[in-house]
Amino acid sequence: MLDFRMETFLTLCRTMNYTRTAEVLHITQPAVTQHIQYLQKHYGVKLFSYHDKRLTLTDAGQALRSAVLTMEHDEQELKRRLPLLEKGKVRLRLGATLTAGEYALPSHLSRYMKAYPEVEVQLTVGSTRRLLELLNRGALDAAIVEGYFAKREYDYLPWSMEPYACVCARDSTLPARLHTEELFAQTLILRDPESGSREILERALLERNFQISDFSRVVEINDLTVIKYLVEQDCGITFLYRRAVERELQEGKLREIQIEGWKISHEFTFLWRKGSVFEEKYRRLFRRLCKNEEV
Q1: I need a labelling partner for 235 at 20 to 30 A (CA). Which of 102, 136, 150, 288 fits?
Q2: Is 49 exposed, middle or buried (0-12, 13-18, 19+ CB in 10 A)?
Q3: Minimal CA–CA distance to 156: which of 279, 240, 50?
Q4: pLDDT per position as a tens digit, 251-282
Q5: How many CB atoms lie within 10 A of CB 86?
Q6: Type and span of the H or E element at 241
C-alpha cells in the first residue's frame, strides 16, 4: 500500500501546482507542503525546484517519480490479482495502439486465447500517450505501442519492425516515384496529433527540414477506415504503416508512392513499467503472444 505522502507527491508531479494538488486530494495546501517536506527530509534530497516561477522536478524527483509509478502499478496489480487468484481466475489487461491493435496483434491474440482459454482478456486500443498513462496508473499490465516513449521509464521488448509508406489512389495521376517536395501540392489526410503514425511522419519531415504545414491542405481524421476510403476515392494521399494498407495494395485499391531518400521503418514495442516485480510475468506473456509457448 502506497504511503499517503507518495500519493501527494504523484499528484503534485501531475499538476505541478500546490493549490491544485490540494484541491484534487481534498486536503489543505499546508498539508501538501508538509508531505513534500517529509519526503525530501526522508530521502535527503530536493524533489522540486522553481525556474522562472514554474515548478519543476529535480533529477532526484524524476527518479523518485519513476520508482513510485512502478510501485503504484504493482500495487494496483496486486489489488486486482489477489482476489482473482482466490476465485481461480486469471485476467490479462493488454493495451495496443490503433495500427498494432487492428493489424499486428489479432493473429497473435487469437492463438493465445485458444491456448489459454482460462484467461479473461481485456484489450484497450488507444494512443501511445493514453496507454502509457493507463500503465502508470496500474490500469494495464503491458502494452504494444508504435509511438515514442521515455525508455528510462519502461522495460521493453521489440515486437516487430514495420515499414512506413506513402499511398495514393490507384488512378491517381501522381508518378510512382518522386521527391518529397513534389507531394506538397497534394491534400494530406492523416490521423490526429496523438497518433503514433502521425508522429513518425512529423519527425521524418522535420529531419528533412519540412513540416506538415508545407502541404497545400491537411485533413485530420481519427479513423483508419475512413482515411483509406478517402484516399481510394482520390481525395488525397496519406502516410501509414504498410501493414495497415497491405490488403488495399494487394487488391489494387491503393498504390504506394516511392519517395526519393525516403525509406522509413519503425519499431512496434511491447512494454511495461520499469522495475516491476511482475517483470518475469510480462516477459512470459510476450513469449506466449509471439511464439505461443506452452510455459
Answers
A1: 102
A2: exposed
A3: 279
A4: 999 999 999 988 888 899 999 998 888 888 89
A5: 8
A6: strand 238-241
